[in-house]
Amino acid sequence: MRISLQLYTLRDSLATDLPATLDQVRDIGLEFVEFAGDYGLSPAEWRDHIESRGMKFSAAHIGFDRIRDDFDDVVASCKGMGIDTVVVPWIGEDQYKDGWDAFGRVLQPLGQMLKKEGLQMAYHNHAFEFQTDGLNGLYGATSPDILNAQLDLAWVHIGGADPVDYIKRFSDRTKQVHLKDYDPDKTPRWQPAGQGVLDMDAILRACEEIGVQYGSIELDESAIPPIEAVSQSFEFFKSKGLS
User: Are 194 and 159 in contact (CB under 8 A)?
Assistant: First the structure.
């Protein structure tokens, strides 16, 4: 498994000085990042920023509405940046009010369209899916080769489920995970990897067993400078033999 970084973690510094922030990411030693917003740059400009620093994209978080309504532009943008995995990062309740299986039947043809363009669709969970057994409904209505799972393991835990169980349950479609960590007794609760309540050793073993390709560092908020939290997280994973 290769370690990536969800760039949403550094959104404030990217908005202030994108080149310098990407330099810091490179200097930490990260070779992969996950796209999360264009900051006014074209796909060609993004590709130049990433490739000139010897990095690659592991995936892109792109809103469901944009995938559905601006499909051709999404395809062109991803291909222009060298991205091959399109992740639905979040949906509103209006999308799953008729049932998660119904939403799965909406995603399936979109995923098939992406597949024809050489792109893979994936879904990134939060905790609200666990209020109605949403992931089982969603993935039960879709083909593993059409809709991958990008399991956010902290949100799985917050939702009351066992991250290791879910990695194994959806082993046929979990190609990427978010290695987010948290401590419910701290504010903010999001913590650098290895400093929260998740059993990272068990999680990493399960990821290795099923052949997860990318594990992404992510913090929604941080008590310390986000770039330092990213560095601490990466050092933790390096100590576990990952890079």
Answer: no
